[in-house]
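Anyone able to model this chain together with zinc ion?
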Amino acid sequence: MILSNYHTHTVNSDGNNTVDRMVERAVERGFTSLGFSNHSYTKHYEGGSIPPHRIPGYFEEIDAAKKKYGDKINVYKGTEWDYYTEDDGFDYEYRIGSVHYIEEDGVLYDVDISGGDLINSANKYYNGDIFRLTEIYFEHVADLFDRVDCDIVGHFDLVAKFNKNNSVFDANDPRYVNAWKKAVDRIMKHDGIVFEVNVSPVYRGYRDEPFPSVPMIEYIRDKGGRFIVTGDCHESGALGVWFEQAYALLDSLGAEYIDFEDIVKNKK
Ligand SMILES: [Zn+2]
Ligand SMILES: [Zn+2]
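re: yes, here you go
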């Protein structure tokens, strides 16, 4: 098991703890590295993302933690880069690429609020065709990796966050399966991109499996894709939760996982 986490939020975006507290907790848990990935700025998520003018202060906090805890743990400056963020010119050590919203008629709608909300958006924009919504979602995910130099695929099937027991749509429907397979194929054309196995929907009780789902992990594995386990942690208590199960799952599937720290180090 690799004790590191590259998907970490703090009070700088929508997390509950400071940079310092998160690092302190990671050290207590015996982590070897911790990367911060607060939400890049979008007007749509004004209160939960970091506007560019607050990035220097955020970086200073991380630098202070690097200094304070440097002999115990390696700390990295990353970002969870949203599809709708415009380049801010800052030098991040890595980027998680994530799609949280989709724009229709000049308005952004969220894909991860609730199942009912997703159905409402499908009714409003696609004549009730929920599979059209999922197709557009996965096109956005692939487009993001064509457009922005990201290292990690963030919560690949976020659109299925509320789809436990296929309660919103049939995840075996060929249209859904083709949509995500196409996105995987497009992303895999870029070298070195890893898929996160994001355990947050499990420990938060939304799903029985992480993002991405098991069939997706198997498909990505067969295409030669690699994984890192992340907690998408919004509070210090979440660090390392369900990691053991996630690594056991990847082992049982014969999926290759890596220590993301090696990639960050090699980028320098
Ligand atoms: Zn996210
Ligand atoms: Zn996140």
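The mean pLDDT is 97.
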